[in-house]
Amino acid sequence: MINQHYLGMLSNKSVIRELSEYATARGKEIGYENVFDYSLGNPSVPAPDSFREACVRYLQEEDPVRLHGYAPTTGLPSVKEKVAASLNRRFGMQYGPHHIFPTAGAAGSLAHALRAVTQPGDEVIVFAPFFPEYYPYINETGARIKIVEPETEHFQINFEDLEEKLTPSVAAVLINSPNNPSGAIYTEETLTRLAEVLKRKSREFGHNVFLISDEPYREIVFDGKQTPYTARYYDHTLTCYSFSKSLSVPGERIGYVAVNPACEEADNIVAMCGQISRGIGHNCPSSLITLAMGDTVDDTSDLSVYETNMNLLYDALTDLGFTVTRPGGTFYIMPKALEEDAVAFCKKALKYDLILVPTDSFHAPGFFRMAYCIDTEKVERSIPALRRFVEETYGIRR
Amino acid sequence: MINQHYLGMLSNKSVIRELSEYATARGKEIGYENVFDYSLGNPSVPAPDSFREACVRYLQEEDPVRLHGYAPTTGLPSVKEKVAASLNRRFGMQYGPHHIFPTAGAAGSLAHALRAVTQPGDEVIVFAPFFPEYYPYINETGARIKIVEPETEHFQINFEDLEEKLTPSVAAVLINSPNNPSGAIYTEETLTRLAEVLKRKSREFGHNVFLISDEPYREIVFDGKQTPYTARYYDHTLTCYSFSKSLSVPGERIGYVAVNPACEEADNIVAMCGQISRGIGHNCPSSLITLAMGDTVDDTSDLSVYETNMNLLYDALTDLGFTVTRPGGTFYIMPKALEEDAVAFCKKALKYDLILVPTDSFHAPGFFRMAYCIDTEKVERSIPALRRFVEETYGIRR
Asked: Are B220 and B315 in the same domain?
């Protein structure tokens, strides 16, 4: 008999996907260039040339039996070495290759990290607003998601609610900084305070509460700043990374788990990930893509367009009277809607071919998300539409 | 706290992997060319040129944002179309693209197929001898493995035991033909009889028992024959395929699930696989590799070396008095050991630098497996060693 749980999941359509499908359909009517599609978080810039060159070089120069052969269960040693060296150099860490587990993107990375540090029935804390895929990512492991309410002024952490929710049944805390959907970056102060809470509670509970740091947007940071490296603040940290955004290769499914060497069972967690793979059918990312990533680990696409777009939108939104926190990174911005019901607000915007996503499914009602990983020229053209929408719908004139 | 289940798995070392590690270590002492390493099922021939050419062409000619972008949850439509067309043309099937779900190799394929047609607690039948990874592949889904004892004369199906084990708690039956480790191919007669049993029991139980057909060795068939296409014999069949062996690209992690259009819920299963992916962190194979596979779906490496090696070994083993079933395909052969304890037998062979794998972990004690995906020249050199081993250890002279 067919599995009823997965069959049932088919009727829960994602809001983001529905809006994106609407945008595609509307594009067929009026030309996609006329749809201001802010729905999907797809990188809009090309991969760096170095990535293509590395792929072609391996294909043309490496013995195909070696190149396309099975990797060891815990990943290609030469690439693990390069990832560790890069993180050590950049963030002052002491990773060895045996602390690095290459994965099929962030989804693969979180699938392993979550299973490694929870038992079925344990709770995993997430902080609203959060990426809605965290629901299946966590709940399908056998652990259960537990939500800390948002701090909506600066999108840092609501510590009061965290202290209340952080009970002995919590095995891990999952953070995402720079954040999807808010664009906020956790400050050093936030991370220091979070570490202090986790240390205190771990002592109190008699077991370590793990920190899982999901950081695919780590390299998209504005104003010349750097994201504080989370694992530096707390020993029991698993860093989950994806090159989807930094190298603009989301379809290639490449990322890693990095286990802080100061972590409980630090020398076993990568081997455990190898065991977890057997049950979930992972068995390493593509060899070719892994090797090319190893050669481009310190490269990025030209990510400056995201900052240009952010500045344009932030200024326009502020100008139009929106309440909005200026993003520190990512390609998202999350203003407050102009009425309490953000779903209604976003529906009304469709009349102006503005595809905005209400953040209700991110556990933050009343706000909306704009994914500005689109051409700057389109952002510019969208601003008059945004102005007309606001003026005609809410009678706001500035 | 660290997950105790996965931590515990670290102490169960795979026999195959231990032997392979021994072979590598021994190779460092005496030169790997002098170790007759029959332990690992790694393809030994290069990928066809067409695969490399397709990769390079996509890298050089396709817009990188499109090429490396996210695929839809259920896979790239153009490639699904090509896979369906190829299977339809070759095997007279009626697959549409919506019946094809591209996966990260056979492991990814089985991870989805097994979850789609079982509920936690259900049983899944496998037929000994079977690939030991079926234990985690099945048990880690929440279903439980149930073993039908081997038929050791021709390595077809022990139908008497199947009739006994096929109870209402069985949701699916998993077959692997051509078979690892025996090299046997299920005959039309076997498949017809299997289908008859499954239909009868499904009627009796009031639910369809699914057939999962794991066929990564489908294209490695000897004597100019073809493997009967399993899904033609039974409607409720999910075909799990990997290009690891046919294209010699095991490290690239590319395969698919093909859902028989006559299957229960045929039009929903691929969409369900998309939902299953969210929980296990799959999210499609690499885009580049998927596209290259689409262009080479009907190609194979030059696989003739496996038949050459099989014939050499089969003749030598027969000549030395081994009881052995002639493989119909794969790159495995599975003779009876010369003493009851095949583990002891294989240990004694190490003295002759022969790395043979006892099939106890394949649930078939008393036999051993030779993976002859190695150079023919080495197979030839191994035969005198095999002869010396047999003569000196078991006093057999022919």
From this structure: no
Least confident of A124-138, B7-21, B341-355: B7-21
A63 and A42 together in one domain: no
A258, B80 Cβ separation under 8 angstroms:
no
CATH of the domain at A268: 3.40.640.10
A377-392 pLDDT, tens per residue? 999 999 999 999 999 9
Query: What's the whole-model pTM score?
Result: 0.96
- Domain ends where: B241, B265, B295? B295
The pLDDT value given to residue A371: 97
Residues in B touching A137 (Cβ below 8 Å): 278-279, 281
Q: How far is CA A324 from CA A312, A320, A352, A368, B72, in A?
A: 13, 11, 21, 10, 32
ipTM entry: 0.96
Mean pLDDT score of chain B:
96
Q: Which helix (H) or strand (E) holds A79?
A: helix A77-91
Beta bridge partners of B370: B333
Tell me which residue of B214, B62, B251, B89 sits closest to A79, measured CA to CA: B251
- Among residues B213, B148, B224, the alpha carbon closest in space to that of B186 is found at B213
Q: CA A131, CA A42: separation in Å to the nearest integer?
A: 14
Please report, in angstroms and rounded to a whole number, the separation of the first and last CA atoms in chain A: 61
pLDDT single digits (tens) A244-253: 999 999 999 9
Question: For residue B13, what is the domain's CATH number?
Answer: 3.90.1150.10
* Same structural domain, B288 and B312: no
**pLDDT band, residue A396 (cuts 50/70/90):** confident
Interchain contact B69–A (C-beta under 8 A): yes
How many CB atoms within 10 Å of residue A117? 28
Is B6 in contact with A55 (Cβ distance < 8 A)? no
Domain final residue pick, A227, A260, A295: A295
Query: What is the reported pLDDT for A17?
Result: 80
Question: Do A103 and A187 share a domain, yes or no?
Answer: yes
A219: closest CA of chain B, how far (Å): 18
Query: Cβ atoms within 10 A of the Cβ of B219, count?
Result: 20
B166 and B218 housed in the same domain: yes
What pLDDT is stored for residue A318 in this prediction? 97
pLDDT in tens, B31-42: 999 999 999 889
Whether the pLDDT of residue A12 is over 90: the answer is: no
Cβ count near A8 (within 10 Å): 11
Tell me the residues of chain A between 148 and 167 that have a Cβ less than 8 Å away from chain B: none
Query: Which residues 205-234 on chain B approach chain A with CB closer than 8 angstroms?
Result: 207-208
Residue B178 shares a structural domain with residue B253: yes
Q: Which residues of A touch B171 (CB under 8 A)?
A: 1
Quick one: pLDDT band at residue B11, thresholds 50, 70, 90? confident
Residues A172 and A312 in one domain: no
Q: What pLDDT, on the 0 to 100 scale, is given for residue A43?
A: 94
Using a CB-CB distance cutoff of 8 angstroms, which residues of chain B are in contact with residue A109? 281
Please, which residues have CB within 8 angstroms of residue A206's CB and are 6 or more apart in sequence? none
Full domain range(s) for residue B17: 4-47+302-394
